[in-house]
Amino acid sequence: MSIRLVAPLLALALVPPLAPAAAQDPSAMSCGQLWHRKNALLKAKGLCFSDPRAARTFGNDGCTIRDPNQVPLTSAERQTMARILLAERIKMCR
Q1: What is the number of other CB atoms lying within 10 angstroms of the CB of residue 43?
Q2: pLDDT over 80 at 87, yes or no
Q3: CB atoms < 10 A from the CB of 61, how many?
Q4: CB neighbours (10 Å) of residue 88?
Q5: Number of CB atoms found within 10 A of residue 55's CB
Q6: Distance between start and end Cα atoms, the chain
Q7: Distance between CA atoms of residues 21 and 87, nearest Å
């Protein structure tokens, strides 16, 4: 009988904690959150911001890339960026 109780508890212990929906799914994010996530990714990859708001928020210290189209993204980062851009279009973010 205790085996039946332990097995489900053990299974629950093996399930990874869920990340917040906004961290997983750009469609659940606000326009502001999408803007911040997109630009944080670009900053981490070395983009020099020409947009005053992005430059103010993230700064240009240590930046090395002037053309956003030249930012080297991994496959996973490209997929994330595509989901962010799609969510921005659907939500009509400016």
Answers
A1: 21
A2: yes
A3: 7
A4: 17
A5: 15
A6: 59
A7: 14
Side chain identity at 20, as an amino acid letter? Answer: P
Please report where in the chains the tokens 């659940």 appear, as a residue: 28
Q: Are 34 and 87 in contact (CB under 8 A)?
A: yes
Mean of the pLDDT values across residues 7-23? 43
The position carrying tokens 């980062």 is: 77
Residues 6+ positions from 61 with CB-CB distance below 8 Å: none
Q: pLDDT digits over 41-67, tens only? A: 999 999 999 999 999 999 999 999 999
pTM over 0.70: yes
48's tokens: 């020099």
- Show the tokens assigned to 84: 């962010």
CA dihedral (61, 66, 68, 71) positive or negative: negative
| Residue whose structure tokens are 């400016």 | 94
